[in-house]
Amino acid sequence: MYSLNSLSVDTLPEALGRTNDGYYNAADNGIDFTKFLEVTTRSIPIPIIAPINTSSTLDERSLSEIISSGLASPRAPRTLESVKSSECLEALLSPSIRSSGGTPHDHPSFEPHPMIADAWEALRRSLVYFRAKPVGTIAAMDPTEESLNYNQVFVRDFVPSALAFLMNGEPEIVKNFLLKTLRLQSIEKRIDCFTLGEGVMPASFKVLHDPVRKTDTMIADFGESAIGRVAPVDSGFWWIILLRAYTKSTGDHSLADMPDCQRGMRLILTLCLSDGFDTFPTLLCADGCCMTDRRMGIYGYPIEIQSLFFMALRSAKSLLKPEGEGRDLLERIDKRLHALSFHMRAYFWLDHTQLNNIYRYKTEEYSHTAVNKFNVIPDSIPDWVFDFMPIKGGYFIGNVSPARMDFRWFAIGNCMAILSSLATPEQASAIMDLFEARWEELVGDMPLKVSYPALEGHEWRIVTGCDPKNTRWSYHNAGSWPVLLWMLTAACIKTGRPQIARRAIEQVEKRLSKDGWPEYYDGKLGRYIGKQARKFQTWSIAGYLVAKMMLEDPSHLGMIGLEEDKKMMKPGLTRSASWTA
Ligand code: GLC
To answer: Which residues form the signal peptide (predicted)?
Structure first.
């Protein structure tokens, strides 16, 4: 988490010189923002549900059918009041849920789950307004805890909210959010004497409302106020991914085509496609630069960032205009995608066979004939992996760099690898096989573990720097985060295994709302509300709604799923030279 003094500022060209309703530079004008810390939120207590739009079952349809149907046709929001209580709502909304066979957990009744209405109400309460327009959702609305910076709109946290609104036919807020964050991108960002890259998108922003002067002010945090002072590498990627989701869901290309949006994308891409000393196509990152936003030993080439990078590159490819600087970027994107898919599929992939290969690696191999290219010492393989790895199943490991493989499993990286088709179809089904084989460890009582397993004892002390928030099986250290349900559900739909998502959703429905929508759960099985978890955490709420709506109408997957690009390289995995020696 970040500290309270997240008072960076927005000095947008359009706002320079304004005295009200604008963007300010606190450092320059000395305004004390702490007196405005309450974010403007409004409540519209009308829950809205997804429209009826499913003609055939998910299990009968291919991904391309799923993706091409139902998109680009804005859906009118529908109020719950407009549906008679006597109607079988859930059956009406989602014939696919009932008709797809093979689920071990058929629902006994066809009533909509009461949590849906609760969730919509809570989501609408979290709306943040800027000059009377909704521009995002606040991270958490927990009245019992000190807000720290949970009273801000986080870019990554807004993604499930945005998807929920898009799925419900309410794209305006998403458009407003994309435009506002784009403006924030263009301000100068500094940490002490150092200026950050132009393309960096904020981790979060907040709206300060002055009821006396009747002004709204927006301030952003690019990492200069964050605990640990780390810039969010994922924000720019999520921004591009969301721009594509908006375009896909509304059919409105005019937003992405705007010169400002094209420029925003170019700035983000320039940051991560620039030449340097790299020998790998993966993106080198600092610890804590994504959802795991504090020291957790993910520095280097974290899987979450690589999957999001891949997805953002593919999304940008479909949105960038092939003119001027865009043409050059498109070429660089193609080259990078090619190299990145090869690298990830070959070196980050771990299954039973590959684990056995690594176990038998020779070391000190020199030159291009080396099989153990990164000189990984087999003794560094942790014991738990040998037990964890099923014969059928696999996953992308956490990190690969010279002599370092982080064998931990991470949820976002693996789910996004499926959604972006960074994973080959075979790898995608192996990831789902792993979920089934290791249900207790990865899903447990509350979906879904952010990572597995937890770091403990000496390792925890060294890797986290003795972080008391990240103790074993808590928070980022293998805690269970309900928000991840939407990604799991999307991955299940993409791989044609909705029954897995249904099982996870059923588990969520037993507790999440009763527990007050916590941010995360603790324990090996995720059975305890997290030590310092916020209640009414918005992305826990939105994640549930997105999962429900996607299962009901799988065509929504097209917003966030990309089909396989057959041109990407599929490496044949190499065996250790020791096998043939
Ligand atoms: C925590 C999470 C981060 C999230 C923020 C707001 O810091 O680690 O990923 O964006 O809370 O919910």
So the answer is: none
CA distance 474 to 476: 6
Angle at CA of residue 13, ends 8 and 16, nearest 5°:
75
Q: What's the chain's length in residues?
A: 581
CB 162 within 8 A of CB 174: yes
pLDDT band at 551 (very low <50, low <70, confident <90, very high): very high
Nearest-angstrom CA–CA distance, 305 and 325:
25
User: Does the Cβ of 290 fall within 6 Å of ligand 1?
Assistant: no
> DSSP H helical segments within 288-407, as ranges?
303-319, 325-343, 352-359, 383-388
Ligand 1 centroid–CA 293 distance in Å is 7
Q: How confident is the model at residue 63 (pLDDT cuts 50, 70, 90)?
A: low
Cβ–Cβ under 8 Å, residues 178 and 172: no
Q: DSSP state, 47?
A: -
Going by C-alpha positions, the residue among 140, 161, 155 that lies closest to residue 185 is 155
Which residue type does 315 have? S
Nearest CA to ligand 1 atom 4: 291
Mean pLDDT of the residues in the chain = 83
Q: 149: pLDDT confidence band, cut at 50, 70 and 90?
A: confident
Q: What is the pLDDT of residue 150?
A: 87
Whether the bond into 448 is cis, omega within 30 of 0: yes
Q: Sheet holding 153-154: strands in order across?
A: 153-154, 204-210, 215-221
CA distances from 525 to 202, 393, 444, 460, 522 (A): 34, 21, 4, 19, 8
Q: Per the structure block, which two tokens stand in for 189?
A: 């960002």
Instruction: Determine the residue of 293, 464, 470 to mutate for testing ligand 1's pocket, defined as the one with the most ligand atoms within 8 A of the Cβ atom.
Output: 293
- Phi–psi pair at 512, nearest 5 degrees: -55, -50
What digits encode the pLDDT tens for the residues 152-178?
999 999 999 999 999 999 999 999 999
Decide if pLDDT at 120 tops 90.
yes
End-to-end alpha carbon distance in the chain: 51
